[in-house]
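User: quick one, sequence for these C-alpha cells?
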C-alpha cells in the first residue's frame, strides 16, 4: 500500500474498532472476543491484506497463522499447536518464495542528488515508500529493519564494511550490487525470524556462512565468480525463516 491508502485503511480499521466497542457497551452488539484479541485480529488482518498487495509471502502466511491461533475457537477451526502453525507458515513462505521469485533485474544509477534512475525494475511500484537508499561512504555500519510487511534497501557505497539487518514477520530485500569493498573482508549480520531476507550480492564476493540457523534455511542462488577476495561473513541468527543469497 502507498502511504495514503495505508493511512486510510488503518484509520478506518481503528474507527471500526472504536464503534464496535461503544456498541457492545450498550448491548447493541455482542462482544464475542476480548478487546485484546479484537485489536490483534485487526492488526494481523491488516498485515495480511498489505502483504497480498506487496506480494510478501512471509507477511501473508505468518499473519494467517496468528489469525488462526487467535480465532480458532471463535470460528470453530481445528485446534493446531502454535509451533506447528509457525512451522507451516515458515515452510509455505520458503516454498512459495522458491516457486514464485520476484524479478530483481535492476540497473540503478545514483546521481548527485541521491535519486535513483530505474531501468526494467518491475518491483519498484510494489516496493514504493518502503524503499531506502543508503548512499554514504562514511558510515561504518548500515542498518536495515522490517516488521510485518515488505521492505527493500539499496546500499550504494564505495567502502562497504558491515550491515546489520533485522527482519521479523515479513520480507526484507537488500541490494548490495552498487556496493564496493576495499578491505579484505566485510560482514553482513542478519537477525531473521518468521519471514525471509533476500540478499542480492555481487558475484565477485565470497560469502562465508557463520550464521546460527534454527528451524530455517540459508539458500544460495546463481553461482558466484569470486577469486577468494573480498570475503563477506554472513553472521547472525535465523529462526523460523530463511535467508536467500542471490548472486548478481
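Assistant:
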Amino acid at each position: 500500500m502507498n502511504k495514503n491508502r495505508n493511512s486510510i485503511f488503518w484509520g478506518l480499521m481503528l474507527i471500526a474498532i472504536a464503534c464496535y466497542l461503544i456498541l457492545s457497551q450498550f448491548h447493541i452488539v455482542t462482544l464475542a472476543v476480548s478487546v485484546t484479541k479484537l485489536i490483534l485480529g485487526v492488526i494481523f488482518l491488516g498485515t495480511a491484506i498489505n502483504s497480498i498487495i506487496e506480494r510478501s509471502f512471509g507477511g501473508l502466511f505468518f499473519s494467517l497463522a496468528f489469525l488462526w491461533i487467535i480465532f480458532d475457537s471463535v470460528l470453530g477451526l481445528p485446534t493446531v499447536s502454535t509451533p506447528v502453525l509457525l512451522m507451516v507458515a515458515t515452510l509455505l513462505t520458503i516454498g512459495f518464495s522458491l516457486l514464485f521469485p520476484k524479478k530483481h533485474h535492476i540497473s540503478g544509477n545514483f546521481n548527485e542528488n541521491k535519486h535513483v534512475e530505474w531501468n526494467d525494475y518491475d518491483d519498484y511500484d510494489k516496493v514504493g515508500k518502503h524503499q531506502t537508499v543508503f548512499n554514504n561512504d562514511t558510515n561504518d555500519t548500515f542498518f536495515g529493519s522490517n516488521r510485518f510487511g515488505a521492505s527493500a534497501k539499496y546500499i550504494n557505497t564505495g567502502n562497504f564494511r558491515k550491515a546489520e539487518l533485522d527482519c521479523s514477520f515479513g520480507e526484507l530485500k537488500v541490494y548490495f550490487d552498487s556496493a564496493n569493498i576495499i578491505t579484505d573482508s566485510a560482514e553482513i549480520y542478519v537477525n531473521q525470524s518468521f519471514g525471509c531476507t533476500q540478499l542480492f550480492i555481487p558475484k565477485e564476493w565470497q560469502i562465508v556462512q557463520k550464521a546460527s540457523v534454527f528451524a530455517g534455511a540459508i539458500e544460495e542462488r546463481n553461482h558466484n565468480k569470486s577469486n577468494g577476495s573480498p570475503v563477506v561473513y554472513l553472521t547472525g541468527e535465523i529462526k523460523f525463516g530463511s535467508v536467500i543469497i542471490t548472486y548478481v
